[in-house]
């Protein structure tokens, strides 16, 4: 692999990282108990040797392969592997089943990067460990290998002390050094360097000559020769042959090492042909397509982590491309991923894999349904007798943002109504065909019949009778009306939705048209201007509607959509994200199922949405309100309970989420009831004031902790036996704070007076709709203040400046500083912009909504 001197190490470290997570996260160093064909295949894949063609297998060999008992290597490849196996058995006192860990060694030589395996072996997990390299040489310890390995002159990077472990950043702990032959005291390096450029193997003919014919199978496979770059190892092979020394790699260890160096290089980096390129791709676990991940998971019987929709899409892709899955392609993928997952080396035909995939999809679908509906869907499957056709219908439904449960219910109901049709009169059947032809949407037809049946408490037969009678009457009276769709100046207008340019109609996906018809056509006229078809089309290009369904419109905020019932967010906010982030968010949220707790949200999407962008999923908001209800669940706190149970706005729920996180961080449960009693007495008017009063108390308790700790150190207080110090300190500090509630109230009143005297509260306005840069200019031209007295008092206490009276002035100096930098982001609801300023004196956050500008917080440099 060609690399430059500047980036060889980063590439090598990335290679080692893959081994760190081989078999699972941070499981790479965990040994496997291997023997027989599983050991042979593991070694062969690790060394990158050519795999035999399944097209040449006998029936008996196919049976062995399906049972995981067939070695995928033959001929010289197998002999080379067997030489390593023999050395492993020798090191382990003759045992054929031993603990094996595959460790990568990365060699950088003449602008090329080579990856060679070394096998750490032991008879028992706690017995002496030996290291066997790809040459079949063994070493008694890391130091033995470090000083005596026969790698050619160059740089080597390897897991530190040949142990795969992670550093604090999650990357593999690696070390690099010169190879022994390249160190200052090495005689080998000088001997080889004299003729490095003289002899090289540049063709398959040269390889055949140097290896005595042993490389013939590789040449037949269409693989060009390569060596350790341009000549050192090649020279040694030719030199040994010219002087009559043994070059048989299976009787002479040094020749074997040299020959395997050539062979490994060919298999890994000189690969040619579709199957070899496929193997190279499969060796990089993160690059394997979801299609082949599914192939391997099904073939190896491992658990699937993809969602039902993802498995469905993947299976359909496999069905459509089944003719492209050659036996060799499938084998390469199965073998490569079995190696990286530490799975079983078994083989299945593409037809068997697809049949298993079909069953797997239906098993996943059944899991999402209640027991009774599972049985009924199984009956549908039995009646249809065509899994491929059914799966394609499920796939089409998912493309239209129709859930698995909804479509399963549709199929079951359709089966029942099909049974009911058998008893209708010919005139009714004709009317049913007319109704179905007019609607052109079987899903709406069946769901409509079902709703009518439930509303009027009718069985299916009676429902059909009534609906069809009404339909025939409407046809005869001419009362059937077309949908509320009209043309105007080259655009199509559906209801109250924004106009759609006729020329752009082909760009709209079916789910987006459904969204416009079902949701935007019904919006309030005053909200129409918030929506933009062109913006929705851009987001569609990133995966909205296709990867992630929109399940509704939120009544609050600025063009807020509901993503898959989990996240309420404005399309304006989504439009500010990089395309890659959008695609990731849409894909991952589209895959979410049954997230009833915040802990059900996968960490990667939680990090991207919650940590990086400060958005809140609905489950976060609901949990925060439930938690706050628990905090005020006391008859004496009825004024707080009334506020918490009012119709809270999204930003108020988000405020509770942040407060809940801070309360957990500072162990506020130790004094929560006393704090709520204090807050209740202050008669807050809304959630913002409840939180501001509460966080004032928290800051007061945290401020008192150092004095309590000083009393402990100087002997005035004693830590009770068995009591955790951090908990005890907060308990004692809170006791001191609430010992004199009047003093606590007076402190707050003093702060409010300070806020009043220094004119820290007031709303400034700017022109609405300014660009980000012009908005910043307008902010810098004004004196920005807090929106409320309580919030101001809390902030100047928690992030006090010197003097506290200068808090707002210092914040504004940071905003106006010529050296200050700023960033502008859009809030989750799309109607607020958050502007962050920062310079050497501190950082502050300002909010703008509808031209109203408020100071949110300021933290001077050096303050926590």
Largest beta-sheet characterization: 7 strands, antiparallel
The share of residues in helices is 40-55%
Secondary-structure content class: alpha+beta
Strand content: 5-15%
* Count of runs of 4 or more consecutive helical residues: 36
Arithmetic mean of pLDDT: 81
Task: Report the uncertain regions.
Answer: 187-235, 237-247, 253-287, 478-483
Distance between the termini: 49 Å
InterPro entries: DUF4781
Domain DUF4781: 117-380
Transmembrane segments: 257-276
Protein name: DUF4781 domain-containing protein
How would you characterize the overall build of this protein?
With 864 residues, the chain is of the alpha+beta class. It folds into 5 domains: 8-186, no CATH class; 283-422, no CATH class; 485-615, no CATH class; 624-739, no CATH class; 755-860, no CATH class. The protein has 36 helices and 18 strands. A hairpin with a 3-residue loop joins strand 12 and strand 13 (567-570). Helix 12 crosses helix 15 and helix 33 packs across helix 35. It is globular, with a radius of gyration of 35 Å. The two termini are 49 Å apart. Mean pLDDT is 81; it is low at 187-235, 237-247, 253-287 and 478-483. It holds the Pfam family DUF4781.
């Amino acid at each position: 692999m060609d690399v430059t001197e500047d980036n060889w190490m980063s590439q090598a470290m990335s290679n080692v990282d893959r081994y760190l997570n081989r078999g699972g996260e941070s499981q790479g160093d965990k040994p496997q108990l291997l023997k027989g064909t599983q050991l042979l295949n593991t070694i062969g894949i690790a060394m990158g040797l050519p795999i035999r063609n399944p097209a040449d297998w006998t029936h008996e060999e196919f049976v062995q392969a399906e049972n995981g008992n067939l070695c995928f290597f033959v001929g010289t490849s197998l002999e080379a592997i067997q030489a390593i196996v023999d050395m492993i058995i020798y090191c382990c006192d003759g045992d054929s089943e031993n603990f094996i860990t595959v460790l990568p060694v990365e060699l950088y030589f003449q602008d090329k990067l080579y990856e060679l395996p070394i096998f750490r072996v032991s008879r028992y997990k706690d017995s002496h460990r030996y290291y066997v390299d790809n040459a079949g040489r063994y070493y008694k310890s890391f130091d033995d290998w470090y000083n005596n390995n026969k790698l050619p002159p160059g740089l080597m990077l390897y897991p530190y002390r040949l142990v795969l472990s992670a550093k604090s950043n999650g990357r593999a702990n690696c070390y690099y050094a010169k190879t022994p032959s390249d160190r200052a005291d090495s005689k080998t390096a000088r001997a080889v360097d004299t003729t490095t450029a003289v002899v090289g193997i540049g063709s398959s003919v040269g390889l055949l000559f140097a290896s005595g014919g042993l490389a013939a199978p590789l040449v037949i496979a269409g693989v060009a020769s390569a060596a350790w770059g341009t000549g050192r190892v090649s020279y040694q092979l030719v030199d040994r042959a010219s002087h009559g020394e043994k070059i048989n790699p299976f009787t002479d260890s040094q020749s074997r090492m040299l020959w395997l160096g050539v062979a490994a290089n060919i298999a890994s980096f000189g690969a040619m042909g579709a199957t070899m390129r496929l193997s190279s791709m499969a060796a990089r676990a993160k690059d394997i397509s979801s299609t082949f991940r599914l192939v391997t998971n099904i073939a190896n019987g491992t658990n699937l982590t993809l969602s039902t929709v993802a498995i469905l899409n993947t299976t359909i892709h496999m069905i459509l491309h089944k003719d492209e899955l050659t036996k060799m392609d499938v084998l390469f993928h199965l073998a490569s991923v079995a190696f990286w997952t530490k799975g079983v080396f078994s083989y299945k035909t593409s037809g068997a894999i697809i049949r298993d995939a079909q069953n797997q999809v239906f098993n996943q679908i059944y899991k999402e349904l209640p027991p009774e509906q599972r049985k009924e869907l199984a009956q549908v499957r039995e009646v249809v007798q065509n899994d491929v056709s059914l799966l394609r219908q499920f796939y089409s439904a998912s493309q239209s943002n129709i859930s698995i449960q909804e479509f399963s219910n549709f199929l079951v109901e359709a089966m029942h109504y099909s049974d009911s049709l058998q008893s209708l009169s010919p005139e009714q059947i004709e009317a049913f065909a007319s109704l179905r032809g007019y609607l052109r949407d079987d899903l709406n037809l069946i769901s409509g019949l079902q709703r009518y049946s439930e509303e009027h408490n009718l069985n299916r037969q009676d429902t059909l009778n009534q609906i069809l009678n009404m339909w025939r009457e409407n046809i005869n009276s001419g009362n059937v009306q077309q949908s509320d769709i009209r043309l105007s100046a080259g655009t199509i207008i559906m209801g109250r939705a924004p106009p759609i340019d006729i020329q752009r109609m082909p760009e709209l996906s079916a789910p987006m048209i459904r969204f416009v018809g079902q949701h935007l056509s019904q919006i309030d006229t005053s909200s129409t201007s918030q929506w933009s078809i062109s913006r929705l089309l851009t987001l569609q290009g990133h995966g909205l509607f296709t990867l992630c369904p929109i399940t509704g419109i939120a009544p609050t905020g600025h063009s807020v959509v509901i993503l898959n019932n989990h996240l309420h967010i404005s399309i304006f906010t989504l439009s500010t994200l990089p395309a890659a982030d959008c695609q990731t968010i849409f894909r991952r949220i589209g895959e979410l199922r049954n997230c009833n707790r915040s802990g059900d949200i996968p960490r990667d999407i939680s990090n991207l949405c919650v940590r990086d962008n400060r958005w809140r999923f609905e489950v976060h908001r609901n949990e925060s309100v439930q938690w706050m209800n628990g905090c005020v669940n006391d008859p004496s706190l009825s004024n707080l309970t009334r506020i918490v149970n009012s119709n809270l706005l999204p930003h108020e729920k988000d405020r509770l989420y942040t407060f809940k996180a801070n309360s957990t961080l500072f162990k506020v449960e130790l004094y929560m009831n006393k704090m709520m009693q204090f807050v209740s007495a202050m008669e807050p008017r809304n959630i913002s004031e409840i939180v501001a009063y509460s966080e004032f108390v928290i800051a007061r308790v945290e401020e008192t902790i150092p004095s309590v700790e000083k009393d402990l150190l100087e002997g005035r207080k004693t830590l009770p036996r068995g009591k955790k110090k951090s908990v005890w300190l907060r308990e004692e500090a809170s006791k001191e704070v609430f010992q004199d509630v009047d003093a606590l109230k007076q402190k707050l009143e003093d702060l409010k007076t300070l806020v009043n005297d220094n004119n820290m509260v007031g709303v400034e306005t700017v022109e609405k709709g300014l660009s980000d840069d012009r908005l910043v200019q307008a902010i810098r031209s004004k004196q920005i203040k807090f929106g409320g007295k309580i919030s101001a008092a809390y902030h100047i206490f928690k992030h006090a400046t010197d003097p506290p009276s200068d808090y707002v002035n210092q914040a504004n100096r940071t905003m106006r500083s010529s050296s200050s930098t700023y960033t502008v982001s859009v809030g989750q609801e799309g109607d607020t912009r958050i502007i962050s300023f920062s310079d050497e004196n501190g950082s502050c956050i300002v909010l703008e909504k509808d031209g109203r500008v408020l100071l949110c917080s300021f933290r001077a440099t050096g303050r926590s």
